[in-house]
Amino acid sequence: MTDERLTHAEAQGVRYASELEGHVRWLDSFSAAALGVLAVASGIYTYLGVTSLLDDNGALSFFAAISYSIAVSVGIFVFWSYLMRLLPAVRTVGARMGLFVSMLFGSLAIIAMSSWLNAAALAGAAAVEQHLARTVQDYQGALERANEIAVRAQGLERDVARVRQSFEDLSEQEATGDLSGLAGRGAVFRLLRQKSDELAGLENQIASQQPLVNAAFAEGNAILSRMRQLTVEPGPIEVRSVQFSEEAVRLSGVITQLRQLSVAPLVSRAAQDLSASVVLPELDGSTAASRAGQQSTIQSVLQLLGQRAETLRRAADSVIAMPPPSETIYTPISTADAVIRYAENFVPSWAGAIAIDLLPAVLVFILAITHAAIRSGKSRVGVEDTMTIAELRAALNAVGDMEAAMSRAKDNAADPPKPLPVSAPKAND
After folding, report:
1. What spatial distance separates the first Cα and last Cα of the chain, rounded to whole Å?
2. How far apart (Å, rounded) are the C-alpha atoms in residues 291 and 180?
3. Within 54-155, where are the H helices?
4. Where is the stretch described as Disordered (predicted)?
5. Structural domain boundaries of the chain?
6. Theoretical Cys-Cys bridge with 88: which of 17, 153, 316, 371, CB 3.0 to 4.6 Å?
7. Interatomic CA distance for residues 191 and 165, integer angstroms
8. Residues 6+ apart with CB under 8 A from 263
């Protein structure tokens, strides 16, 4: 009973193997053509990627790109043809591991010489647009930072106005005699007016910068708007990149102008000069007591002047200490470099570019599994049990031919050839 089950199992295995062999023969009829189509498609996209790297559009560059793409197509076709034939056929573990490692290194080589160029052809323009968009963001941040510093510096005008107003109020008090006790426009009044006039000049200078700051910021925003349009408008990306570069140069100039329009360094220097450069007026009191009162008031004014100057200097230094806008420089980039730099944003394109080159690896594994199944189905039976009718007929014909040849050989051995007749020699005349 066990032998019958075993015989039945063997028969099932043979039929299973024969069925798989039929499928494999049918698939082999077009596998080479399909592999050739994949190789040619990869070569075409490789050609497009290579042309994006070449600056020259002459005949030599054209033939160089064609030669490279043909070499890639041939290499892919030969490489996967070898593996589709050899890897399923080997049986030892060592041979399989060796071919698998070879396939791994070959796949990496294909990615290095073809897949990244395929990705450049598939998503190169979009990647360059991504680069332009990132650059616009960087320039926008730099412009806003430069404008923020300039606006903060313009805010120092209020601090200067408060100090100026305080000195004007003190001068009015001095004019009425409420400060030093001497009414009129004496030495203390002239000192207070001297500093209030200096601060008024500084205040007017700061105010004159405000329209320039507003105009520069408006111009920068207009340039940014044009740069954003260049990132998304239709047309060749190479032409748009050139226009984008021109706008980037203009915007860099505007950002530099905004940085120069900051009045914080000017206010800081003016605050230092406010207390350092004081022209003391001549005391004009009629009596020694009045002159002593004026001198005491001037000392108090100088002390107050130093305090106000220190307050202004600290306010200006806080603006100067603000981190400056980052140095943003637009660097043109090729489509191939762009898809590498922004690879995380183009995963589908990278997947498609690699899949078109490495899809035959799946076919190799399928064939390896199928051939292993065929060998497993035939492993428990002999060769004579797996022969098809056609193979059996051919074998019988071969046996018949061999028997006929052997029969002719025996017949020839049984009937030796007759000796040729020898003619008698003729007598000499």
Report:
1. 98
2. 10
3. 59-86, 93-110, 116-154
4. 407-429
5. 2-124+345-390, 126-341
6. 371
7. 14
8. 153, 154, 156, 205, 206, 209
Q: Is 184 left (phi over 0), alpha (psi -120 to 50) or beta?
A: left
Residue of higher predicted confidence among 301 and 325: 325
**Burial class for 102, CB neighbours closer than 10 Å (0-12, 13-18, 19+):** middle
CA atoms within 13 A on the CB side of 403: 6
Mean residue pLDDT of the chain comes to: 78
Helices within 277-346 (DSSP H only): 288-320, 335-341
Mean pLDDT confidence for 70-74 = 91
CB-count exposure of residue 204 (10 Å: 0-12, 13-18, 19+):
exposed
Query: Can you list the pairs that 342-350 forms with residues at least 24 positions away whose Cβ atoms lie under 8 Å?
Result: 342/127, 342/130, 342/131, 342/134, 343/119, 345/127, 345/130, 346/119, 346/123, 346/126, 346/127, 349/119, 349/122, 349/123, 349/126, 350/115, 350/119, 350/123
CB-based contacts of 47, cutoff 8 Å, min separation 6: 65, 66, 68, 69
CB of 213 closer than 8 Å to CB of 150: yes
Q: How far apart are CA 378 and CA 128, in angstroms?
A: 57
pLDDT for the residue 74 = 92
Per-residue model confidence as pLDDT tens digits over 175-200 = 665 555 555 556 666 767 777 777 78
Structure tokens given for 13: 């295995």
Cα–Cα nearest to 309, from 277, 263, 262, 261: 277
Distance of alpha carbon 293 from alpha carbon 174, whole angstroms: 12
Other Cβ atoms less than 10 A from the Cβ of 156: the count is: 25
Contacts within 8 Å (CB) and 24+ apart, 22-31? 23/370, 24/367, 24/370, 24/371, 24/374, 31/84, 31/363
CA angle 126, 131, 134 (to 5 degrees): 125
- CATH code of 126-341, in short, is 1.20.1260
Q: What angle do CA 417, 420, 426 make, to 5 degrees?
A: 170
Residue type, 198: E
Percent pLDDT > 70 in the chain is 75
The one-letter amino acid code at 136 reads V
The three-point CA angle 175-179-183 to 5° equals 35
What is the C-alpha to C-alpha distance for residues 180 and 297, in angstroms, rounded to an integer?
6
Cβ neighbour number for residue 324 with a 10 Å cutoff: 13
CA gap 265, 262 in Å, rounded:
7
pTM: 0.66
